[in-house]
Amino acid sequence: MNTYHWLLALPLALGAATGAAQSTTPAGRPSAAEHSQQVATFQQKLNAEYRNPAESPLSAEAQKSFTGLPFYPVNYAACVEARFEADSLGAPFQMVTSTARRPQYRKYGVLYFSFEGKPQQLVVYQSLDLQRNPEYRDYLFVPFTDRTNGHGSYGGGRYLDLRRGQIQREKLVLDFNQAYNPYCAYGGQYSCPVPPAENRLRIAVQAGVMSDH
Fold first, then answer.
1. What is the reported pTM?
2. Is 148 helix (H, G, I), strand (E, B) or coil?
3. Average pLDDT, stretch 154-174?
């Protein structure tokens, strides 16, 4: 998990070069009990990453007082089944980041889903840099913003990670409880993808990692 996050937001000290994926369980919304366990596992793994000095994006000083990331309460309604529509014509483009770095991505497809009774959609992206790495070839990336940004969650938006194997019969489970912050939320030494305008949700997603500021 940590290596993937590191590849998304390379430390600036490494210069201009190229974040945990959700469970690879196929489409089919889990029960409330199963979902609660999945979210607990996700939170435990993410906290373990941030505690580990070899993996953490936190400064050495911040690590000393770190007791765990702030999370919204588990929100079962924020675990939704989405319809996936592939985009086979998506041309490569340069993803804007928090720095001058412009990694190559392509639009992999679009997710259509309902959230709190309202139709929503998010674009799924695929990193061309990671395509060349066998270990991460099946990883997909969903950066997004919503109305909690700056009001409970990090102002710069959050990320969701997916795997191609999660898409079954053009459907997958999208769990916003596994939304996490870009490394840039914890320091200016990283170069993080900025969620594109087409992934601005006009709803408040009260799930996933919160801001600690």
1. 0.89
2. coil
3. 96
User: What distance in Å separates the CA atoms of residue 104 and residue 123, rounded to the nearest whole number?
Assistant: 15
3-state helix, strand, coil in the chain (%, to 5): 25, 30, 45
Confidence band of 56 (pLDDT split at 50, 70, 90): very high
For residue 186, what is the DSSP state? Answer: G
Secondary structure in 3-state letters for 85-100: EECCCCCCEECCECCC
DSSP 34-82: HHHHHHHHHHHHHHHHHH-TTT--S-HHHHHT-----BPPP-GGGEEEE
Contact 108, 124 (CB under 8 A): yes
Rounded distance, CA 180 to CA 92, Å?
25
Residue 35 phi, psi (nearest 5): -65, -45
* Residue 24 reports pLDDT greater than 60: no
> In 178-198, which positions are buried (b, 16+ CB within 10 angstroms) versus exposed (e)?
bbbbbbbbbeeebbbbebbee
Dihedral, 97, 10, 128, 19 alpha carbons, nearest 10: -90
Whole-angstrom distance, CA of residue 75 vs CA of residue 53:
30
Q: How far is CA 56 from CA 48, 108, 162, in A?
A: 9, 29, 21
